[in-house]
Amino acid sequence: MGITYINEITVSDFNNLRIASGWDAIEEELASNGIKNSLFKLTAKDGDKTVGIVRVIGDGGYVVLISDIMIFPEYQGRGIGRVLMEKAMTYITDNVKTGQSVFVNLMAAKDKEHFYTKFGFAIRPNEKSGPGMTQWISKEAVVSKEDNK
Fold it and tell me: What's the burial of 126, exposed, middle or buried (CB within 10 Å: 0-12/13-18/19+)?
């Protein structure tokens, strides 16, 4: 049986792929909302096993982000990432109206940048653009004295 592709992602599969990719799991409510609010999502399946995902998110205007493209390490190098990217790029291209442009962004994992150049992405920094920048913002839970009674 070959790899099949479906337009749904479970929180469990999402977090399993994050962990396999060396990233932290995302809290269930946040992951669920992120998946639900995606413009496009696609899962690669090997039988019942989810082996890769991609999401496209955006502002409904001119900015989209290809997010969370992840493949289980043992499935990398089999063309799954290429198919996921092709389908994500087709979704984006098909939704651009004649005469309009959208700004497509992604944050490549370290040493994976050249994979994305095959799809027209420029490696940063370059002569026009500086390096990408990111930041995680967290808020710690505060327990009040009333909660300790």
Answer: exposed
**Given this model, what pLDDT does residue 113 score?**
93
Phi and psi (nearest 5°) for 13?
Answer: -65, -40
Domain at 85, CATH number: 3.40.630.30
User: CB within 8 A of 46, min separation 6: which ones?
Assistant: 1, 3, 75
Class of residue 30 by CB neighbours under 10 A (exposed 0-12, middle 13-18, buried 19+):
exposed
pTM to 2 decimal places: 0.89
Q: How many domains does the chain have?
A: 1
pLDDT tens digits, 128-137: 999 988 898 8
